[in-house]
Amino acid sequence: MVENLREIVFKCDRNGHFTLLNKAWMATLGYETADCLNRPMDDFLHAEDREIWLSLLTQLKTDQEIECKELRFHHCTAEIIWLELSARSESQGEISGSLTNISDRKRAQAALREANEALQLRIEQLRRENLERRQAEATLIQSRAQLEQQTQQLEATLTELKQTQTRLVHAEKMSSLGQLVAGIAHEINNPINFIYGNVTHANEYIQDLLNLVALYRQYHPQSHPIIQEEIDQIDIDFLLQDLPKLTNSLQVGADRIRQIVLSLRNFSRLDEAEVKEVDLHEGIDSTLMILQSRLKAKENRPAIQVIKEYGALPLIECYAGQLNQVFMNLISNAIDALEAKVNLWQSSNLVLGAQLPDLQIQIRTEAVEENSISIWIIDNGTGMPEAVRARIFEPFFTTTSVGRGTGLGLSISYQMIVEKHRGSLECSSAVGEGTKFLIQIPVSLSQAKS
Fold it and tell me: Phi and psi of 18, rounded to 5°?
């Protein structure tokens, strides 16, 4: 497992000399692993970061663990590679840890900084131009129109930057999530196909053996004492009764795993970045499968009921992965609202002995007009006041506590539905009654664009 990890795993002595390196060291930095053992880590560090590492070595003598320290390493080609260090001191005096390649993230951060600096320069330039125009306003009346135009450009630039930041965060999140889900599905798919393909044959072979045992017991009931002793010891009657049940359980389990793998692959849809025709209900069901653990009953609340009222829909021409992400955002928000309702009910002592009302999410689909479909996602959670509902599609607006939400989910969903699918996303809500989201998209996206 250690050898096949993508992160570098290492061990070194108290002086920082490597005693163990996995294959990721060579894959990341290009050096032969064997040539680097017994050499100090600072041989491969950027000159400006060596003192940081030596200081961390000293710190590890008193602190058991350090995390998330960013260091620059030299690739064998002289390229600078950014690695994130996590390490801990072991009882034997050794130091073990991992190094994660964060070069792509550092480059993205640098690009974002450059974009922000360029934007600040542009803003300062626009401010200077506005000042000059205000000074000449008394004599140059036409400059007012130019000033308004420049102001609009500034607002458009700021809006574009905010949208770019939103798309960047979403792209990174969806890329990581999609690759993770697709990778898990792929890794599970190979062994389960092997198991599933052999369970049927195993059932047939076991049944043949059971038939043979039955014939033997019928025509040779008086067996050798040693054989009879073994029959009594293994309790053959129970074995003959229980073995078919066991093989049937294996078949059911294999079927269940295949359904889960199919749901994971349906949800990620990394191979469907382009517009294609899909069954919308498959995407909703896959999303519900992914969220199944959140829908189940917990210690403090009953299970959340999902009421599906699917209409007869044609195949929808769309970006399947993006629509699945919209379903994920809206259904996750509905679950959050229902859990908030449970917490509010449990903390209230106004009605003693009252029972917690049913927790429900209703998903309704229907075809409307000639070239459009509607999807309703309705919950009976806490609901929202109008002041909150009016802002839910704004980027970075969130009512959750710090660390629980970024305020991008509904904003991204709105962009996907309105901009990418030429549809509409509407919300209605009342405090204490619940929330309704209505998605309307065209059946044929190519016709809608034209």
Answer: -65, 135
Q: What is the DSSP letter of 302?
A: -
At 314, list the tokens.
């044609």
Distance CA 413, CA 253 (A): 35
In this prediction, residue 79 has a pLDDT band, given cuts at 50, 70 and 90, of very high
Cα–Cα distance for residue pair 40/51, rounded to 1 Å: 13
Predicted local distance difference test score (pLDDT) of residue 99: 93
Asked whether residue 271 carries a pLDDT value surpassing 60, the answer given is no
**Beta strands across the sheet bearing 18-21:** 18-21, 8-12, 95-101, 80-89, 65-74
Alpha helices in 348-418 (DSSP H): 386-389, 409-415
3 vs 265 pLDDT, higher one: 3
Helix (H, G, I), strand (E, B) or coil at 68: strand
DSSP string for 167-214: HHHHHHHHHHHHHHHHHHHHHHHHHHHHHHHHHHHHHHHHHHHHHHHH
Tell how strand 305-309 and strand 316-318 pair up: unpaired
For the residues 62-88, what does the mean pLDDT come to?
Answer: 90
Q: Is 297 helix (H, G, I), strand (E, B) or coil?
A: coil
Confidence of residue 237 (pLDDT cuts 50, 70, 90): confident
Judged on CB neighbours under 10 Å (0-12, 13-18, 19+), 52 is middle
The answer to whether the Cα torsion of 399, 339, 440, 325 is positive or negative is positive
Q: Which helix (H) or strand (E) holds 217?
A: helix 143-219
Give the end-to-end CA distance of the chain in Å, rounded to a whole number.
52
Cα distance between residue 83 and residue 103, in whole Å: 7
The CA-based diameter of the chain, rounded to the nearest angstrom, is 122
What is the pLDDT of the chain when averaged over all its residues? 81
Cβ contact 320:281 at 8 Å: no
Lowest mean pLDDT among 190-204, 275-289, 377-391, 434-448: 190-204
Residue 186 has pLDDT above 90, yes or no: no
Q: Cα separation of 237 and 24, whole Å?
A: 54
Residue type, 189: N
Q: Which position has the token pair 């699917």?
A: 310
The pLDDT-based confidence of 243 (bands split at 50, 70, 90) is confident
d(CA 309, CA 266): 21
